[in-house]
C-alpha cells in the first residue's frame, strides 16, 4: 500500500525543516538563474540590457510573495510562523521592559489569585471528602439552627429508627494524653461509633478497623486506629505498630490499624491523631454520658442515604423520629427537627458562610482578572498605536492582516503564559504554605488546599482566555489600518474633554483600590490597638500553663489535691507575684462553656425558661488577682468555699443586669442551675471578653473549683520575669509533681491567637486584596497615561518646539491621569470610611477616625500614581521635537 | 495566505510533469519557457509561482532535482521525472482525459438529448 501523498509531504516537510537555510539559499540561486536566463533571452530578442532585466523581473512576478508561498510549502508553516512570531514577540517585549514587567506582574497576580481561590473552593466545597460515593453522604443537623450535636441515646434512636440511611455513624472530638512509652503528649482524637469506618465505606491502610461488633458496653473496646498522617509523623511509617499497646489517659489501648492516606475524619480542616470507639468515652473524656439523653456531647451524626432516597424524604423520616423523641422524652428533648447538610464543614454552621464567602471571593477574583485584562488591553492598544507605522509598512510589503494579527496575538499569549506560569507558581507556594499553616497551636487545624489537576486546567484556561481577551483589543485598529494614510503621516485625531468608558472604569478601579487600602490600614491599626485594650483581664506579663489531669489518670478528689499542690508549688517559684486556676482561660481556648441559669424563684426548669446563658468558669481563690480582673462589689472566693460550704458564685455586670436587673439588686441574691441547685451571688466583677474580641458584653459566672471540680486546668501565672525562663521554671516544677503530665504553656498575650484570628485574617486578606487593587490601578493609570502620551506625541513635540516648559508638558500629558486618580482616591477613601463599620464587626476597635489612616491612604495613593506615571512622564519629557518633525 | 495564481495548481503540476516527460531533465526557467510556449498566455506573468509547485512535486517524490550547468554555463537546478512520477503522469493523464471527455460531452449535449 502506497503511503498517501499528503503523509509523504508531511514527512518531507518535517525533515526539510532543519535545512531551511540551505533551501532558502537554493531558491535564491534558482531565482537569480531564472531571471538571468530570461534577461539573456530578452537581450537576444533585441531589448536593451536594462529593459531586458526589468521585463524579466516583471515576468517572474512578486518575489517575496513567491518566497512566502515556497516557504509555506517547504516546512510546517504554522510551526515555522509561530516560532518566527515568538522570536519577534520576545524581541519586542525585551525592547520595552517596563511594559513587559507590569503586564506579567499584573497577570501573575490576577491569575494567581484565581488559582488560589479556586483551589480553596475546590478543596473545601467541590471535593472535600475522600470517601467512596461522597455525593450521597450527609450529615444530620438541627432544623432550627446550624448545629449538629446530639446526645448518645438520641443518636441510637436516630440510627435504629430511621428508614432512609444505610447506617448512621456518630463522632466527637476530644483531647487525650497519649503515652507510647516515650514522650507523653496531648493529642486530638476522634471518638467514633463502632460502625464509623463501615458507614464511611473505607478500607484500612494497615491492620483492621474497629466495627460495631467490637462494642459491648462502656469501655469495652480499648482500640485505636491511627490516622495515616499521625502514623507517618509519629511512628515513622512503622508497620509493626499494629497490635502494640499504648496508654491513652493512662488506660491501655491496642493499636488495630492505620486509616487510608488522605482520610482525616470528616471535618476537612481538623486532623485528628487517631480514632477511638465512642463506647470508651469514660476513659477518654473522664465522664460517661452514654446514657444521658440531655448531654448532647456528640459532635455530629452522619451517613449514606439509601439508594433512591431523596434528601427531602430523609428529612421527613428524621423529623418523624424527632417528634417521637419530643413526645417520649419531654424533659430532655424539645423541638427536635432535622435537616441534611454536608458534613465536611460541620453542616451549614461553617458550610453556609464558607460557601457564601468563597463564592464571593471567586466572583471578586474573576472581576480582578477581567479588570487586569481591560487594563492590559488598553496598554496593548497604546502599543499597537505606537506601532501603526510598522504595521502599515508590513501591510504595504504584502503581509496579510491575519498574519499581523497573529503576531499581536502571539505577543499577548506569550505575556499571558509567562504571567500565568508565574502566577501559578506563586499560588503553588502560597497554597503549600496555607496547607501547612496551623493557625492555632492548640488545635490540629489545617486546610488541605493543595492544588490538583482541576486547578491546573482552570489556570491554563484562564491564562489562554485572558491572553486572547486583551490581545483582541487592537484587532479593530489593525483591521482598519490604511497603510497609505499612515505612511503619508496623516494626523491622528486627538479628542479632548470627552469622558470615555475607559476612564470611568479606571476611576472605579482606583476607587476600589483606595477602598481596599483604606480598609486594610484600618484593619491593621485596629489589630494593633486591640492588643492594648481592656479585656476584663490583663494578658500582659502573665503566662498561661494548661494541662488536663484526666490525661494522667487523675479524677475527682485526687485531681483536686494535685491542683492544690500545683498552685502552692508554682506560687513558691521566685518572681511569681500571683497564681490562679481557671478551667478555660478566657480568649485562649475558645471552648468556654455555656451554661444555663434560672432565677432563684423558677420552678419549671425547662431550657426555654432560662434567665440567661452565661459562660461558666471554675476558678481558684487567687484567680481574679492573678488575672487582674477588677472586683466591683462583694468578695472573691476563699479556700473555705468547698463542698461543705453553701454554693456561691461571682458574676459579672452583664449577668447581674440580665438576671437581677441591676448590680445593686444582685448582691446576695440566688439563682438556680438546671439541676435545681441554688447558688448565692457573693461578688461582682467587671465585664470581659471571653470567647471573641468583638462579642457583645456577655453574662459570665465564676464558681469555686472546690465546689465544681474540673480536671481541665489553666494556670494563670503573673510575673514580671522573662517569660521563657519562667516557663522553664514552671515546667520543671510540674515535672516534680508528675512527669507524665502533658503541659502546654505560653505568654497569655501570645495565646490570644484564637481571639485575634478573625482580625488577622481580615488584615491579611485586605492587605492582599489591596496589593492586587494597587497593581490594577497602576496598570490602569500606566496604560491610560502611556496611551495619551503616545497619541499626543506630535502635539507635545510642537508644544516643546514652541517653548513649553517641562511642567506644562507634563500637565498636558498626564494632567488627566492625575485628575482621575484624585477623583477615584477620594471616592474610595469615603467608601472605605463607610465600610469600616462593617469591618468593626470582625476587627475589634477598627475605626477610620484616625489621622494615621487618612495620611497613610493619601500617601499610598500618591505613591501609586507616581509609580504608574513614571515611565510615560519620562517619555513625554524626553521628546525631541526635531526628531519628531523629521520622522514625519 | 495562499498567493493567488493565474493557473490552477493541479493543472500547472500536470503541465510540469508532462514537460519533463517529453523533454527530459530541465531547469526551472526551461520548464517555464516550454509551458509558456505551448500554452500561450499561461505563465506569461508570475513565472515565480512555478517554484512552489516544483517543491511540492519534489516532496511528493514524483520529481527529483540536482545541480547541473545551464546554457550559459552557470549552476542551475535540473528537475527530472522519477519512475513514480511517470506512473502518476499516466494515471493523471488518463483521469484528465476522462474528465475532459465527460465535460465535452456534457457541453455538447443539447436539450433534446437530455429529455
Overview of this protein structure:
The complex is a heterodimer of chains A (888) and B (115). With 888 residues, chain A is of the alpha+beta class. Chain A contains 28 helices and 22 strands. Chain A has five domains: 71 residues, no CATH class; 191 residues, no CATH class; 208 residues, no CATH class; 163 residues, no CATH class; 207 residues, no CATH class. In chain A, the strands form three sheets. In chain A, strands 13, 14, 15, 16, 17, 18, 19 and 20 form an eight-stranded mixed β-sheet that branches. Chain A has a six-stranded mixed barrel with strand order 2-3-8-5-7-6. In chain A, β2 and β3 form a beta hairpin. In chain A, α19 packs across α23 and α25 crosses α28. Chain B has a single domain, classed as Arc Repressor Mutant, subunit A (Orthogonal Bundle), CATH 1.10.10.10. Chain B is built from five helices and three strands. A three-stranded antiparallel β-sheet of chain B has the order 1-3-2. Chain B is elongated, with a radius of gyration of 17 Å.
What is the CATH-assigned architecture of chain B? Orthogonal Bundle
- Main sheet overview of chain B: 3 strands, antiparallel
The first-to-last residue Cα distance of chain B is: 45 Å
For the residues shown, what is the average pLDDT of chain A?
84
Oligomer: heterodimer
Question: What structural class do helix, strand and pairing data of chain A support?
Answer: alpha+beta
Total of helices of chain A:
28
**Residue share in helices of chain B?**
55-70%
Radius of gyration from the alpha-carbon trace of chain A, in angstroms: 38 Å
Report the span from N to C terminus of chain A: 64 Å
What is the tally of beta strands of chain A? 22
Q: What is the fourth-level CATH superfamily of chain B?
A: Winged helix-like DNA-binding domain superfamily/Winged helix DNA-binding domain
Order of strands, widest sheet of chain B: 1-3-2
Low-confidence parts of chain B: 1-6
Biggest sheet architecture of chain A:
8 strands, mixed
Shape of chain A: elongated
By CATH reckoning, the class of chain B would read Mainly Alpha
Number of individual domains of chain B: 1
Q: Please state the structural category of chain B.
A: alpha+beta
Amino acid at each position: 500500500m502506497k503511503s498517501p501523498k499528503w503523509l509523504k509531504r508531511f514527512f518531507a516537510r518535517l525533515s526539510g525543516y532543519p535545512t531551511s537555510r540551505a533551501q532558502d539559499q537554493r531558491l535564491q540561486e534558482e531565482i537569480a538563474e531564472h531571471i538571468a536566463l530570461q534577461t539573456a533571452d530578452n537581450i537576444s530578442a533585441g531589448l536593451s540590457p536594462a529593459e531586458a532585466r526589468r521585463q524579466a523581473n516583471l515576468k517572474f512576478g512578486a518575489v517575496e510573495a513567491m518566497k512566502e508561498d515556497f516557504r509555506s510549502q517547504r516546512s510546517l508553516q504554522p510551526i515555522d510562523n509561530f516560532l518566527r512570531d515568538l522570536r519577534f514577540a520576545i524581541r519586542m517585549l525585551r525592547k520595552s521592559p517596563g511594559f513587559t514587567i507590569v503586564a506579567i506582574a499584573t497577570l501573575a497576580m490576577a491569575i494567581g489569585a484565581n488559582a488560589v481561590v479556586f483551589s480553596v473552593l475546590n478543596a473545601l466545597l467541590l471535593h472535600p471528602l475522600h470517601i467512596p460515593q461522597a455525593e450521597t453522604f450527609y450529615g444530620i443537623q438541627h432544623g432550627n439552627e446550624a448545629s449538629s450535636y446530639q446526645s448518645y441515646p438520641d443518636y441510637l434512636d436516630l440510627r435504629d429508627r430511621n428508614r432512609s440511611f444505610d447506617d448512621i455513624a456518630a463522632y466527637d472530638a476530644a483531647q487525650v494524653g497519649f503515652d507510647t512509652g516515650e514522650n507523653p503528649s496531648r493529642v486530638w482524637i476522634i471518638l467514633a461509633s463502632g460502625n464509623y469506618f463501615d458507614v464511611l465505606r473505607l478500607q484500612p491502610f494497615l491492620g483492621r478497623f474497629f466495627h460495631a461488633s467490637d462494642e459491648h458496653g462502656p469501655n469495652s473496646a480499648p482500640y485505636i486506629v491511627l490516622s495515616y498522617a499521625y502514623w507517618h509523623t509519629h511512628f515513622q511509617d512503622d508497620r509493626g505498630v499494629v497490635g502494640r499497646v499504648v496508654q491513652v489517659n493512662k488506660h491501655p489501648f491496642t493499636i488495630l490499624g492505620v486509616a487510608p492516606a488522605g482520610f482525616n475524619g470528616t471535618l476537612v480542616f481538623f486532623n485528628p491523631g487517631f480514632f477511638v470507639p465512642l463506647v470508651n468515652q469514660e476513659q477518654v473524656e473522664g465522664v460517661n454520658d452514654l446514657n444521658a439523653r440531655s448531654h448532647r456531647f456528640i459532635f455530629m451524626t452522619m451517613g449514606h442515604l439509601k439508594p433512591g432516597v431523596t434528601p427531602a424524604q430523609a428529612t421527613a423520616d428524621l423529623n418523624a423520629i424527632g417528634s417521637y423523641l419530643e413526645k417520649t422524652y419531654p424533659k430532655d428533648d424539645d423541638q427536635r427537627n432535622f435537616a441534611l447538610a454536608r458534613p465536611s464543614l460541620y453542616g451549614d454552621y461553617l458550610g453556609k458562610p464558607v460557601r457564601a464567602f468563597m463564592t464571593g471571593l471567586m466572583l471578586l477574583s474573576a472581576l480582578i482578572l477581567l479588570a487586569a485584562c481591560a487594563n492590559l488591553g488598553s496598554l496593548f492598544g497604546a502599543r499597537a498605536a505606537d506601532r501603526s507605522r510598522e504595521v502599515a509598512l508590513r501591510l504595504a510589503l504584502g503581509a496579510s492582516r491575519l498574519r499581523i494579527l497573529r503576531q499581536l496575538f502571539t505577543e499577548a499569549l506569550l505575556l499571558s503564559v509567562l504571567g500565568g506560569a508565574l502566577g501559578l507558581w506563586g499560588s503553588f507556594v502560597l497554597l503549600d504554605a496555607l496547607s501547612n499553616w496551623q493557625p492555632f497551636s492548640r488545635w490540629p487545624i489545617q486546610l488541605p488546599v493543595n492544588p490538583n489537576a482541576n486547578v491546573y486546567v482552570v489556570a491554563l484556561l484562564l491564562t489562554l482566555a485572558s491572553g486572547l481577551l486583551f490581545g483582541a483589543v487592537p484587532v479593530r485598529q489593525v483591521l482598519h489600518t490604511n497603510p497609505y494614510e499612515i505612511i503619508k503621516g496623516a494626523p491622528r485625531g486627538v479628542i479632548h474633554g470627552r469622558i470615555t468608558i475607559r476612564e470611568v472604569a479606571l476611576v472605579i478601579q482606583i476607587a476600589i483600590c483606595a477602598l481596599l487600602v483604606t480598609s486594610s490600614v484600618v484593619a491593621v491599626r485596629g489589630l494593633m490597638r486591640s492588643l492594648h485594650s481592656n479585656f476584663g483581664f490583663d494578658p500582659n506579663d502573665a503566662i498561661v500553663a494548661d494541662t488536663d489531669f484526666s490525661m494522667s489518670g487523675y479524677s475527682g478528689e485526687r485531681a483536686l489535691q494535685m491542683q492544690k499542690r500545683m498552685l502552692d508549688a508554682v506560687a513558691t517559684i521566685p518572681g511569681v507575684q500571683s497564681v490562679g486556676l481557671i478551667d478555660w482561660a478566657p480568649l485562649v481556648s475558645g471552648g468556654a462553656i455555656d451554661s444555663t441559669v434560672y432565677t432563684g424563684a423558677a420552678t419549671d426548669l425547662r431550657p426555654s425558661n432560662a434567665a440567661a446563658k452565661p459562660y461558666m468558669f471554675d476558678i481558684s481563690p487567687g484567680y481574679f488577682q492573678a488575672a487582674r480582673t477588677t472586683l466591683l462589689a462583694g468578695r472573691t472566693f476563699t479556700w473555705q468555699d468547698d463542698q461543705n460550704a453553701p454554693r456561691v458564685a461571682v458574676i459579672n455586670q452583664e449577668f447581674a443586669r440580665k438576671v437581677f436587673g441591676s448590680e445593686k439588686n444582685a448582691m446576695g441574691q440566688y439563682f438556680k442551675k438546671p439541676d435545681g441547685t441554688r447558688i448565692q451571688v457573693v461578688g461582682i466583677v467587671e465585664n470581659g471578653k471571653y470567647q471573641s474580641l468583638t462579642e457583645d458584653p456577655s453574662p459570665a459566672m465564676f464558681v469555686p473549683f472546690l465546689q465544681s471540680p474540673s480536671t481541665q486546668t489553666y494556670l494563670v501565672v503573673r510575673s514580671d520575669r522573662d517569660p521563657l525562663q519562667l516557663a522553664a521554671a514552671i515546667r520543671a516544677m510540674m515535672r516534680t509533681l508528675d512527669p507524665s503530665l502533658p503541659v502546654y504553656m505560653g505568654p497569655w498575650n501570645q495565646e490570644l491567637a484564637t481571639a485575634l484570628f478573625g482580625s488577622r485574617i481580615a488584615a491579611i486578606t485586605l492587605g492582599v486584596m489591596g496589593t492586587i487593587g494597587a497593581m490594577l490601578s497602576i496598570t490602569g493609570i500606566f496604560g491610560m497615561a502611556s496611551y495619551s502620551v503616545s497619541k499626543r506625541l506630535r502635539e507635545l513635540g510642537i508644544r516643546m518646539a514652541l517653548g513649553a516648559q517641562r511642567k506644562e508638558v507634563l500637565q498636558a500629558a498626564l494632567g488627566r491621569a492625575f485628575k482621575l486618580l484624585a477623583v477615584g482616591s477620594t471616592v474610595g477613601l469615603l467608601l472605605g470610611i463607610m465600610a469600616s463599620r462593617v469591618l468593626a464587626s470582625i476587627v475589634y476597635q477598627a475605626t477610620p477616625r484616625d489621622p494615621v489612616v487618612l495620611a497613610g491612604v493619601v500617601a499610598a495613593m500618591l505613591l501609586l500614581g507616581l509609580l504608574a506615571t513614571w515611565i510615560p512622564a519620562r517619555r513625554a519629557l524626553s521628546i525631541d521635537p526635531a526628531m519628531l518633525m523629521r520622522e514625519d | 495566505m495562499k498567493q493567488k495564481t493565474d493557473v490552477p495548481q493541479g493543472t500547472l503540476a500536470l503541465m510540469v510533469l508532462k514537460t519533463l516527460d517529453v523533454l527530459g531533465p530541465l531547469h526551472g526557467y526551461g520548464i517555464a519557457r516550454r509551458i509558456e510556449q505551448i500554452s500561450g498566455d499561461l505563465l506569461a506573468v508570475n513565472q515565480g509561482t512555478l517554484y512552489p509547485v516544483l517543491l511540492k512535486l519534489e516532496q511528493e517524490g514524483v520529481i527529483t532535482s540536482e545541480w547541473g550547468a545551464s546554457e550559459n554555463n552557470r549552476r542551475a537546478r535540473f528537475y527530472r521525472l522519477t519512475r513514480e512520477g511517470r506512473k502518476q503522469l499516466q494515471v493523471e493523464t488518463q483521469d484528465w482525459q476522462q474528465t475532459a471527455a465527460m465535460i465535452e460531452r456534457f457541453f455538447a449535449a443539447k436539450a433534446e438529448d437530455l429529455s
